[in-house]
Design brief:
With 85 residues, the protein is α+β, with helices and mostly antiparallel strands. The protein has 3 helices and 2 strands; from the N terminus they run ββααα. A two-stranded antiparallel ribbon has the order 1-2. The termini are far apart.
């Protein structure tokens, strides 16, 4: 199983800034990317799917294979998530 690290800046009671690290399973990142794509495509239907997938890839640390799979999935005629937009 692969994991990704999502860092968030924090400050302790001494005023020193640090980094809180959260480990997120890759499958959760892919799920978040799918939700992001559906929501963003609904809100901005004029944006090309390829641009949204590139953005999701950077935002959710997806591999090129994950991005390619998302492109195939959302481009498939069987999965018309975006026809009502």
């Amino acid at each position: 199983m692969q994991f990704s690290v999502d860092g968030v800046s924090s400050q302790d009671n001494t005023g020193k800034r640090g980094m809180v690290v959260t480990i997120i399973p890759e499958s959760a990142l892919l799920s978040r990317a799918v939700a992001y794509l559906i929501e963003t495509r609904r809100d901005f239907p004029e944006r090309p799917l390829s641009a949204l997938i590139d953005e999701a890839g950077m935002r959710f640390n997806l591999s090129p294979l994950d991005a390619e799979a998302l492109m195939r999935f959302f481009s498939s005629e069987e999965n018309n998530f975006f026809e009502d937009t």
